[in-house]
Amino acid sequence: MPKKGGKIADVAKESQAQCKRPKLDTAGSPSVLSFESPGSLFRSLISPIKEEVFFREYWEQKPLLVQRNDVLVAAYYQSLFQLAHLKELCSQGLCYGRDVNVCRCVNGKKKILNKEGRVNYMQLKKDFDQKKATIQFHQPQRFKEELWKIQEKLECYFGSLVGSNVYITPQGSQGLPPHYDDVEVFILQLEGEKHWRLYKPTVPLAREYNVEPEDRIGSPTHEFILKPGDLLYFPRGTIHQADTPQGISHSTHVTISTYQNNSWGDFLLDAIPGLVFDIAKEDIALRTSIPRQLLMQVDTADCTKKLSSLLRRLADSLENSRELRSSDMKKDFILHRLPPCLGCDSDPLTPGGKLPKIDSKIRLQFRDHAIITVEPDQENADEVRREMVYVYHCLKNRRETHMMGTEDDTASEDGLTQTHGLRFPLSYLDALKQIWSSSTVNVKELNLTSDEEKENLALSLWTECLIEVL
Prior knowledge:
The protein is an alpha+beta fold.
């Protein structure tokens, strides 16, 4: 988890390193997606289905199949990732397990065919051709800029991490057994055709991945062929399996997934401890001792009435306008999400233009890529912990580590990963909310007591590229 956001790193140095990536993107077809805003991107992704219809009738409820038969969409989808791209990608030092899995479904079980170490293209192609193995490419947005653009916009749209995997399966073969996932799934068919079978969930909105045996799942509720340009959505928990039909040289699809561990239950697990801590300062009922030897008892059923009563007190306090804050979930999201896709040919992300002064007019930049949190002061752990305001952002996150479960190079001396951002006294909260809620704001009108504080706040945000001076 992130430790602190109090230090300002060298923006130019990190941004320049961010743009020194292998240029693997080929000149693909013109985009059929709208990147004007996160909302327009999602609407164009599910077109012709209307956004409100999707969330009213399909989201977390049932699968959606969009069969388009549109050559422009098919050409654009194919440009996102192709079997032909693997040779060049393998030259970038891919590793088995981390970047690529080679697998096949054998007798209802997943058989891993990975070798050791780095991926050799000729060996990979041999396993694909001769062993009829599926190639699973992990998180291709690390290499393919168009997928980076799509997933970064979707992370803004959902407010949740968005990962992806590419699956390339030869004809007459199946890579994975029937299973369900703990994510909302959007599948884009890129090349060839894929035969899909979906089944009724045994665990609706599942919280974990699980393989289901054939004799348990019954008959398919949906069965169809995906062709290039088609899109499939299904909720977490939906049991599914897919194979490439005979007569089709291979199938390539990308699975875009989101909303892992992003439920109300997860939010409560994150927010309730802080709520209890705050209310206990004011409510003596939460500070009274538990019964003697309670922790030594096997049966604690006698405590359920007391706990129910205390939970009702918490609910009453929350309804009386007390704010329910997420701390760890917010920081985990901002720490691990993609940076904005500015393109490797763009200028490095550095503060530019005029320095903000007391008479300046300023505007917030990258609103979708920054958050404000109120939490205990992380730099004074040995003292009475006062609350501070933290502004975290993902502008200097590293695309190369996105969704890979690895920490980036911003670890502090004690080994804990650090978020990028700023730390302010609690008295700055109203001024920050002013900036976040306004299209433009005059520095001198910020809700702070002195001109020095107003200028310092504006300068701090400008240094992190979060505002521009108009």
